[in-house]
Amino acid sequence: LTATGSGAELRLDGVLQPMTATAGPKLALNLSGKRFSELSQWTGIGARAKLPYALSGNLQLTRDGWQIDPVSARLGRSRVEGSLAAITSGTENLYQIKLRFPLLDLKELDRNRADTEKQQDRETDGLTIDLPILAQDIVIADADLALSIDRLLLPHNEIEDIGLNAHIRDGHVKRAPFRATLGANQFTGNAKLDLRGATLGADLSLSARDVDMGDILRRLRLVEDLPMSTRSLSTRVRLRGGSLDELVRKSELRLRMKDGRWSLYDTNLQAEAVIHVVAGELDAQPGQPIAGQATGTLDGVPVDIAWETADLHTLYSSQRRLPLRLQ
Q: For the chain, percent helix, then strand, then coil, each to nearest 5?
């Protein structure tokens, strides 16, 4: 079966047969198009989403559920592959989601998100995916999730090797292993997720050893070149929102470092001063300036340093350099 419409090409191949506990209809799905916005009447995505797209998968239906294995999709530069399944027990569904993103370009996707899209408050028992073509919502309250992202592209940054393994129950996760790599710095820890309602809630607790702190501050666009390292770094991130912009605007970030080294080089004197940092911290609250402080010693003399710059959302969205105040 082939069909075209709304700029899309659809092809279905398969076998229809009675459903049993282990067998049933099998369908191979292939959908593609040049402009994702042309599917707006089915997806609810606004007219600015002009990216090419493709979706393919092998669907197997049985009496006790369904699975799509393998499944792959592309939207613009972003790509995903893996498998999806649902097991039905009475009136309850347990979803099994295994997805790997070789590339997830949030910068491109956010640019193509329609400005007219509005968040609608919902009271549900889990993460809701709106599918107007079905005239109903699919509520994911219980799911086993294995998610990995090779490269996550942000407007001014890139995060690699993101991994999350979570057991979602009643729309939330109390504790799930999480990892991410920022430059040469590998972070591991746990994530707490709240998928109930229209917006995402996530709390991340991460730590790393032998960290290039100068590289992290450069990626946060706080400095250009600062030789600084730390033996131990802990991070807490709190995210709330339904879009990338809202997540940044409402996010909270806290960094704590111990046993660090900060090198300052004077080109005029051609001399280097090394500050041994005993402890340092950086805090970013929604709508508040990013502030930090550090205590240490310089040639055995106690040193206290404090700094402040713009809020996290301004730092994320601004195209110009922002002032950094030191004292």
A: 10, 60, 25
- Tell me the β-bridge partners of 211: 230
Cα distance between residue 112 and residue 41, in whole Å = 17
pLDDT digits (tens, 9 = 90+) for 120-144: 444 444 444 333 333 335 566 899 9
Q: How many residues does the chain have?
A: 327
Run of H or E residues at 41: helix 40-43
Whether 33 shows a pLDDT value over 50: the answer reads yes
DSSP 121-150: ----SSEEEEEGGGTEEEEE-SEEEEEEEE
Structure tokens at 14: 């398969």
Q: Tell me, what DSSP letter sits at residue 20?
A: -
Residue of 171, 190, 184, 236 whose CA lies nearest to 214:
184
Contact partners, residue 144, CB within 8 Å, separation at least 6: 94, 95, 96, 97, 166, 167, 168
pTM: 0.84
Instruction: State yes or no: cis peptide before 70, omega within 30 of 0.
Output: yes
Token digits of residue 214: 């100068």
Judged by average pLDDT, the poorest of 5-14, 115-124, 230-239 is 115-124
